[in-house]
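Q: How would the structure tokens look for this protein?
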Amino acid sequence: MVAQIDYESTKSHKRHDHIIQDIRFIDIKPAYKNRIKENFKSVFSLKCRHEQLFSDISIVNNLHAIMKKEKPDVVIAESVWCLQAIGELDVEIKLIVHDVVRNFMWEMYISSSGILKKMYFFYDWLRVYFREKKIVNNPRVKEYIFLTEEDKDYYVSKFGIDYTKCKLATNQLSVRKINRNLNEADSFLLFPGSIEFSQNELALKWFCNKVLPEMKCCPKIIVTGRASEKNKKVFERFNVLKFCGEVSLSELDQLYSQCICVIAPIISGTGIKIKTLEAVQMGVPVVTTPFASKGIYSDLCIYGESDTPIEFAKVLTNTISQYISG
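A: Here is the predicted structure in token form.
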């Protein structure tokens, strides 16, 4: 059984594949209705916003009721923030650490475009400085599962977490390989990610402004996911881009099947890049950066020697050439 915190106003497509069909998913919603109001109130607390979100009384009560009914022997906390919702329940915890908490807050501060968002993330970054050790170094956690070697080394050296409790995730997703059927008549690259997420927007800006000028030519690039008119306007001078909005999983699979490759020009953020991992495990080549490929081990994850635009352009041009010639 998976209890998942649902605080989004819209439903995203979830790829519940054949391996996990028999698992029950239960959505838990927070009690608050106005996120802006909650963000404002959070300023007056020593806890960062993510801690406060998972401390929401509705989330805590619902989760405790579920655990009282199910009586699990082990609870896998899917992020450090989940520990706030679990509270003092007497249960063995395995904690999945997605990234270095302070680094995440700093990266969100850097990549966010709005002044208010920047202010909130910067303040969170300051607060987490005094709380990260307490959040992560929880005596009730019996096992830490890290997604990258770098994150594991950071927490072991920084906060003295017991090395014998630490493991690395296999970083495997429950997705099937797809049949590749490249669209030779109308070839394209695929950027699967909403530009409403600041780090995706920053990645696409970097690609358009820095990488494209280094390429002699570039096929059409299809961008999936939510894209407001305001954010699309930023990219209107780049004729190679085609925004197609949110697509169904079957439509996304068709795009994966027909594209030359996925591009993931990610230069900010922390943790493992799920879209990149999903694509390579489905059998789709991904041209990315060394930064964004941490924790992903596949011959289909293609990157150069550095995170420079010239290197990215060179690798992408070679990949496109192989498609055209082969």
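Residues 9-13 have pLDDT under 50 and may be disordered.

The two ends are 46 Å apart (CA to CA).

Upvote if useful.
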